[in-house]
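Q: Fold this one first, please.
A: Sequence and structure below.
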Amino acid sequence: MRFVLEPEQQDMADTLRAMFTAADVPAIARSWADGDAESWRKLWRSLADLGVTGVTLPEERGGLGLGPVELTLCLQECGYAGLPGPVIESLAFLPALLPDLIADTRVRTAVVERHVPHALDADLADEVYACGPGSSRLLPGAPSQRKGSFDAARRLFEVGDGSGEEIPGADFERAFDVAVLGCAAYLLGLGHRMLDLATEHVKQRQQFGRPVGEFQAVKHHLANALLKLEFTRPLVRGAALSAGTPHGGRDASAAKLAAADAAHLTSRIALQVHGAIGYTAEHDLHRHLTKTAALRQSWGTPAWHRRRIARTLTTDPDTPIGSP
């Protein structure tokens, strides 16, 4: 299996990272948390101009016609930047679910039976969907009630479960697996950003006249985080390469588990080396900490994915591990 990026894929990732850096995503996230979507939508339109909002959609529907590998690269960079909004829903889940979706600048969000009980940023979205194995519907009207969230930029809403427009031809299982893969990629990006923040912090902070990063114990903690993240990367890439195969769902679950565990470990280490300042909402680390905790439980809890993997291996022990 080849895990090295093609030059065009690396260029895509580099372009997105430069765009997010220039756009000042931390400031956009603060505005988004306050309900001001103007700067976020400006960035979203720029992503649409690059084709990111239709990265996996076929060219005849205005998309780039690319595959899951490119999708994971885009979502990994979104995670690295800590981009708020229904990114996984709009880029991964709904493009795979809706058979006639056209690439555009519309923002879409969804509630997903059992796994995503509240619609992310439903008040600022253009379309809200209610989806499950038996039925997927476009919901009419506005969200009913906002719910509390420990991540201020993850604005959760209850939406009505009344009648809506049924979506014919929706492939829920496939779309859910794509969203799980996208969530894994986003978590991987979050983890790498928290590690970079921690590394930069220990280079600058001094104790006993030396940078904290020179102490062996700190080096070991950061090395453990890097090791965990680097072992996650091939699992995410392998799940992208096996997407759509009979064992694609199991591989997506494995990638989500590994990414959630790696990001969680990295968040604890990053917070430990930052100290109390890492708790403050003004620090960039805080945004990534809260998103990691939320996404670790979203799109299937760790326990759910472990059961799924175990069930798959039990019922089909000859299934190959990874892409053929």
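Q: Good. Now the second chain.
A: Here it is, same layout.
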Amino acid sequence: MGEIEQLQKIITDSDNIVFFGGAGVSTESGIPDFRSVDGLYHQKYDYPPETILSHSFYMSKTEEFYRFYRDKMLCLTAKPNAAHKKLAELEQAGKLKAIITQNIDGLHQAAGSKVVLELHGSVHRNYCRHCGKLFDARYILNSTGIPTCDACGGQIKPDVVLYEEGLDQKTLEDAVRYISEADVLIIGGTSLAVYPAAGLIDYYRGNKLVLVNKSATPMDARADLLVQGSIGEIFSKIEV
């Protein structure tokens, strides 16, 4: 039995699946990945992305932060790909209980998924640091300089977890609960190099750990099933 057939059987036999995903789920929708060869590292900015996307840089060089953020982080024309769509179908069929994602692009929700835990926040939520009013990503994209609140003039911050910032505690707790109770844990499109997100996998207690990725990860040896290749192509072959 090939890997896809094995994956199909695991999915067919379970109604308590949790999906944990990273940047590789979105790259097939045209969203750049930080760590891939042609990702954000090869851009022409005075600072590396990890510096620009840090809390201290946001506080000290806010305008430069937003110049990069508008240019590189707001891919608002991106559409859900086959992986996003299949995961939404699996949820609708009562098989998938939750998606836990490191992505901030909102594509899982755009595909129709309801239970999406966003470990690193979302570009689609932005809030005034003064009065708390919420703004969508389009408002940020269409602003210039440092975006300000149209109600009180306060500075707007994306609801995205920057480097040096902690993850949302409730989101983490929910992720731990879903993973620890899951029958099947499918991990896709992540190098599993970013902590604390990668550490969540340690809470999985089952024996159906599936890894779907283009390249090797530090967790490959722990997987019960390893499927290498394009996550969109692999998921498009799965029947719900």
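Q: Anything worth noting on the second one?
A: The CA atoms of residues 75 and 166 lie 24 Å apart.
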